[in-house]
Amino acid sequence: MAVANFSLTTPIYYVNAKPHLGHAYTTIIGDALARWHRLIGDDVHFLTGTDEHGLKIQQAADAAGMTPQQFADGIAPQFQQAWKKLNISNDDFIRTTEPRHYAGVAKLLQACYDAGDIELDTYTGLYCVACELYYTEEELVDGLCPIHKLPVESFEEENYFFRLSRFEGRLLDWYAGHPGAMTPEFRGNEALGLIRGGLRDFSVSRTSLAWGVPLPWDTKHVAYVWFDALTNYLSSVGYGTDDERFSEWWPVDYHLLGKDIVRQHCVYWPAMLMSAGIALPKGWGIGGWLLAGGEKMSKTSGNVIDPLDLVDDIGVDGFRYYVLAETPYGQDGDFTYEGLLNRYNSDLANNLGNLLSRVATVVAKKCDGIGPAPRADSPLATAAATAYESTSDGWLSLQPSRALDATWSLIRATNAYLEANEPWKTEPGAAVDAVMGDALEALRIVAVLASPAIPDTAQEVWGRIGLPGLVVGQRLPNAAAWGGYPGALAVTKGEPMFPRRQIPA
Ligand code: MSP
Question: Annotated catalytic residue: which of 37, 112, 145, 221?
């Protein structure tokens, strides 16, 4: 089978705050998707990084009494460390202060300028620093930014403008020719609504600020932070520095983003690419917000939850599983600690943990600790085939919660199979061996299918049922074909994997 390239990105996170649960949310979804694609044999490029220019960072640095570079240098590693702790398998981490990124931004600016789509003009507008976006009077809610509920600032600047208004028809035509490019559909429709509502030119440069990438033809100006930031998706794969690499990895398969940055990703960005004559992304995944007490989690709202605290409490995989399984992709979810524990208890402790411990206990007692081989005509084989098909559909259609539910259907079927056969009540012999071989084979397939979501756990299950090597070394679809567990392997009982948690009153 030919190796296919699959690339995906998360937004690059502002370094004005340390990583919080809202950042972890998209990054974990991206990671699981990247891992699924590696399992199916794709050559994957998974990108994340940090957005380090702009007024917001300049102001945060000023407040801390540092230069913006010093400030960014302090926060960017915190993102890298957090992703390491969350087992994020990104292939690259781009910082917008890197030389390779400056080269890409300069090249894209110049390409749009040469195409005649960037022009000098004077602008007066109302600016929200938290969004790094201009608003019209009508867009404000009670005179405040509609997203951050903060006062906006009145700015007048001579700016270079990107002539977005010229792209309305071209964008609508492109999206009409690429149905399903934005997923889920209802979020894509919101983006189309923004385009149909009419597009205004936006300024792509600032003279009031020095912290950014200078415009190549007029170095008094630095690039507007969103023009700069979006370009990371190109500069990270060689645009401006390595043409061969760029042609290998562009266009990207999926940009993952939150619903608050749809305008920039689904309207500005494709227009910028069209102007420069660069192919458009193949897909956008638009996620909802993970709310805390009904509010978007953000530094500005002061309701930030540190994902690393939750990892210390519930484990990396407990946390990753919750993020992926709890909320259908695209919808808003409300984070509660009780919800986290409930998910953990029902799916990880009662279903997966219980299945593993039952199997290991019965194999120890009735099979001398040696796992028997499965039957070719096991009643569980159909459940396994269906679980694989639906898990695959779930990941490929960017619905992690459905993918996991499908994988868990095999866990539930295997627990039910054990309860129906009660091998713990049966004398050792062929009947027990047959049932336990089937259950071990189901666990092997579960380990493979669940590995994108809970990689450490999957590896632990793999090892405890006696299989050598790494789950990440397996390849689908072969690894999901019934009959792969060879039997005659030592099965280890080990500590309970997901001890039940008490829900605090
Ligand atoms: N720097 C820009 C993105 C530039 S991409 C070229 C930015 N950064 S951000 O750090 O403010 O937010 C990044 C992403 O995190 C956004 O997609 C945003 O939706 C997401 N989240 C921030 N808080 C969130 C939640 N509480 N829940 C889910 N995602 C949210 O915007």
Answer: 145
Å from CA of 349 to ligand 1 middle: 32
Residues with CB under 6 A from ligand 1: 11-14, 22-23, 25-26, 51, 229-230, 232, 257-258, 260-261, 289-290, 296-298
Question: At the topology level of CATH, where does 337-490 sit?
Answer: Isoleucyl-tRNA Synthetase; Domain 1 (1.10.730)
> What letter does residue 16 receive in the DSSP assignment?
T
In the annotation, is 112 catalytic? no
- CA quadruple 12, 16, 22, 25: dihedral sign: positive
Question: Would you state the pLDDT for residue 2?
Answer: 53
What contacts 321, CB < 8 A, 6 or more positions away?
A: 343, 344, 347, 348, 404, 453, 454
Q: Which residues of the chain have pLDDT under 50?
A: 1
* pLDDT computed for residue 308 by the predictor: 85
Annotation says 425 is catalytic:
no
Question: How far apart are the C-alpha atoms of 476 and 373, rounded to whole Å?
Answer: 21
Query: What are the strands of the beta sheet with 295-296, ordered from one edge?
Result: 295-296, 290-292, 333-335
Domain ranges of the chain: 337-490
- Integer Cα distance of 340 and 319 in angstroms: 8
Best residue among 8, 9, 12, 13 to mutate for probing ligand 1's pocket (most ligand atoms within 8 Å of CB) is 13
The tokens describing 214, both together, are: 């200078």
Rg (CA), the chain: 25
Strands 295-296 and 290-292: antiparallel
Distance of CA 58 to the CA centre of its chain: 27
Residue-level pLDDT at 287 = 98
Q: Is 489 helix (H, G, I), strand (E, B) or coil?
A: strand
AA identity, residue 349: A
66 three-state secondary structure: coil
